Amino acid sequence: MSSQPVNEPILGYTPGSPERIALQAELDRQMAEVVEIPCIINGEKVFTGNTTTQVIPHKHGHILANVHQAGKEEIAAACQAAINAQEAWINMGLEARCAIFERCAELLAGEWRMKVNASTMLNQSKTAFQAEIDAACELIDFWNFNCFYARQFHDMYQPLVSPEGVENSTEIRPLEGFVLAITPFNFSSIAANLPSAPAILGNTAVWKPSRNSYHSNYVLMELMMEAGLPAGVINFVPSSGPDVSDVCLSNPDFAGVHFTGSTAVFQGLWQRIGEALPNLKSYPRIVGETGGKDFVVAHPDCDEQGLLVALLRGSFEYQGQKCSAASRAYVPKSVWGRIGWQLVAEVRKITMGDARDFTNFMTAVIDQRAFDKISGYIERAKESDTCEIAIGGDCDDSVGWFIEPTIIVTTDPNYESMIEEIFGPVLTVFLYDDENFEKTLEICDKASPYALTGSIFATNEEDIQTAFNALRFTAGNFYINDKPTGAVVAQQPFGGARASGTNDKAGGPLNLLRWISPRSVKRTLDTPQDWGYPFLEPDE
Ligand code: NAD
Fold first, then answer.
1. Quick one: which atom of ligand 1 is closest to the CA of 261?
2. Residue 379 phi/psi, 5° resolution?
3. Which of 340, 437, 456, 478 lies 20 to 30 Å from 147 when distance is taken between CA atoms?
4. CA 136-69-219 angle, 5° bins
5. Which residues pair with 40 in a beta bridge?
């Protein structure tokens, strides 16, 4: 049994540090080239000629890559490659498979770190710190801890009893067929984890990356191949969502989907899987982590400076494009009277611009569609009788898709920006009368269909417990006196229920259990030679 991994330490990127110098050099290098990104099918690069460009969100005139899109033919070839690769992959055994993914973690912690971080900064417009905690640390942790957890199943799930003359055992098999990994733009770590978590257990995968993270995701695909991933185990197919679901779901060997993205897309997929069921060999595993409307509830007696910091970081880091980002807050009027203006003053200090300028706290949102959607919410709030823009509200898409960090204060707890996922740097605050703490918890629980993350800020244990109980099903990741973002692998396994997903907890062993289909084996050492039973004997 290998020893328990430790979380990857986060590098600081302070001025003059070796990591900052190395990252800046790598950013310059990547800025100076335009990469041709192929599909990777059965370990081969496939240049389809049907290309799309990948631009930098904070400088959308700059092309980072030309990406060769897979059509239906290539997607079908990727499915077949995954099916063909599975037997040899299973036969390699868990230890050899883990060795490959642990090698991936080692490469990412070492010589590949700056390449992956720089690519994530440019492709998804992350600051150095946001890239480091995502693309480096979280992914290194996913790979190391998933291997550790997978080894544990082999011991943990063996039968308790083998009577004399019998040997019972459980074979930890993967699913039969291929897993379709459909991944979001916002975390490079999630993108690589969705195909590789099932692969550790002996599954093979078709990986459909988001069209907004092809560059960084391709770098990670290259890294996995360098670590020794055999051909066909993970097949990288940049392609349209509808094409992928058409081809993969109509393949009888489709064994499961590992999805992270928006609720609407996941619900559509689930329905399509239901329709496809009669043609499938197995009941597919459906694992999806989806949207959020993550909350912060403050009690009148709370750490007000801590609340301010949690609201600012939780709402605006990575431009609010974390599924866990704080986007609605319930604050007592007395508390807001003391910290509201201070929060506004601090948000005014937030620096925003190019990710390569390390003094920026924020950069741009991911694409024109996101920009239009988020600015639409802000414009409607400006017009609304129940809302006031406390800070921010300006948007500029001339160079990059920039949206100012924005706080809306509303008198309506059911206003659209209090209940719908915006996925941008917009925090809406509902101010409640101090005596209505419990009623406010009820409003928070009922207002939105999502249940991903949330925080309670309170000083007294009794108030914390009241919130803990009232919000039991309102968040799959619950924080006490902290911001609702920043879950760490092996510390806070991540996921929510209700409209936020199947809550299979990425970064914990429960997720991995979805990718196995055990076989129970009974070996009899003393095989019966006579078909009769004693009870058949006649009475004396
Ligand atoms: P998205 O739903 O737009 O896209 C996710 C993936 O689905 C992409 O690869 C996309 O191309 C694909 N897709 C789109 N339409 C499809 C279709 N018809 N068939 C098959 N695939 C299709 O999401 P996004 O903008 O990339 O990511 C943001 C969303 O992801 C937010 O809603 C966020 O809350 C969610 N998210 C959730 C978690 C979590 O753990 N709960 C983590 C990260 C992101």
1. 30
2. -60, -40
3. 478
4. 20
5. 45, 236
Cα of 61 vs centre of ligand 1, distance in Å, is 25
The response to whether residue 288 sits with its C-beta less than 6 Å from ligand 1 reads no
For residues 300 and 458, is the Cβ–Cβ distance under 8 A?
Answer: no
Beta bridge partners of 259: 182, 288
Q: How many CB atoms lie within 10 A of CB 65?
A: 23
The two beta strands, 204-208 and 234-236, are: parallel
For residue 261 and ligand 1, the question of a CB distance below 6 A is answered with yes
pLDDT tens profile 422-436: 999 999 999 999 999
| For ligand 1, mutation pick of 182, 208, 240, 319 (most atoms within 8 Å of CB) | 182
| Complete DSSP assignment for 522-540 | EEESS-------GGGSPP-
Q: Is 268 in the pocket of ligand 1 (CB under 6 A)?
A: yes
* pLDDT of 138 over the 60 cut: yes
Over the chain, what is the mean pLDDT?
Answer: 97
How far, in whole angstroms, is CA 381 from its chain's centroid?
A: 29
Ligand 1 neighbour 81 (Cβ under 6 A): no
Tokens of 294: 């993550």
Q: Which of 125, 133, 139, 186 has most ligand 1 atoms within 8 Å of CB, for mutation? A: 186
Confidence of residue 155 (pLDDT cuts 50, 70, 90): confident
| pLDDT tens profile 78-95 | 999 999 999 999 999 999
* Residue ranges of domains in the chain, CATH in brackets: 18-290+501-519 (3.40.605.10), 294-480 (3.40.309.10)
**281 phi, psi to nearest 5 deg:** -70, -35
- 497: Cβ below 6 Å to ligand 1? no
| Distance of alpha carbon 261 from alpha carbon 264, whole angstroms | 9
Here the tokens at position 270 are: 């689930």
194 alpha carbon – ligand 1 mean position (Å): 12
Q: What distance in Å separates the CA atoms of residue 16 and residue 306, rounded to the nearest whole number?
A: 30
142's tokens: 């996913």
C-beta of residue 287 within 8 angstroms of C-beta of residue 256: yes
pLDDT digits (tens, 9 = 90+) for 172-231: 999 999 999 999 999 999 999 999 999 999 999 999 999 999 999 999 999 999 999 999
* Contact 245 CB / ligand 1 (< 6 Å): yes
Residue 221: which of 78, 329, 317 has the closest Cα?
A: 78
How many Å lie between the centroid of ligand 1 and the Cα of residue 183? 6
Q: Which amino acid is at 467?
A: A
Residue 249 Cβ inside 6 Å of ligand 1? The answer reads no
Residue nearest to atom 10 of ligand 1 (CA): 210
